């Protein structure tokens, strides 16, 4: 299972109303650290399949949602459970750190 693309329009149904926790990666095409994290996100999406949905939102194409959640720098990763943000990390993480952090919330 790969990561899901989320838009401002699909945010409520894809993230807030999700039955499983959602890791949402706020990123942009021009962001080097975001691009470097891409493969790790794809891997944890497979590792956590069924326990957590991994999604990505391009902040350039979808400015509303990042604004609502006060995203200042990217990559910003937020874990949503039951429609609420339960954890946030800003900055690049390797797969091991990412998996460790997700395991606390899955």
Automatic annotation (TrEMBL):
GO terms for biological process: cell redox homeostasis. The active site is at residues 31, 34. PROSITE patterns: THIOREDOXIN_1, THIOREDOXIN_2. It comes from the Bacteria. GO terms for molecular function: protein-disulfide reductase activity. Keywords: Disulfide bond, Electron transport, Redox-active center, Transport. Belongs to the thioredoxin family. The lineage of its organism: Bacteria, Pseudomonadati, Pseudomonadota, Alphaproteobacteria, Maricaulales. This is Thioredoxin. The record marks 32-33 as: Contributes to redox potential value. GO terms for cellular component: cytosol. The record marks 25 as: Deprotonates C-terminal active site Cys. Disulfide bonds join 31-34.
């Amino acid at each position: 299972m790969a990561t899901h693309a989320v838009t401002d329009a699909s945010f409520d149904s894809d993230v807030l109303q999700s039955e499983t926790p959602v890791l949402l990666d706020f990123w942009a095409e021009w962001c080097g650290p975001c691009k470097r994290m891409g493969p790790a996100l794809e891997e944890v999406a497979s590792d956590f399949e069924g326990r957590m949905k991994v999604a990505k939102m391009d902040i350039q194409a979808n400015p509303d949602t990042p604004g609502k959640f006060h995203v200042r720098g990217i990559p910003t990763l937020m874990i949503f459970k039951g429609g609420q943000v339960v954890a946030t990390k800003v900055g690049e993480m390797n797969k091991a750190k990412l998996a460790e952090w997700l395991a606390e919330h899955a």
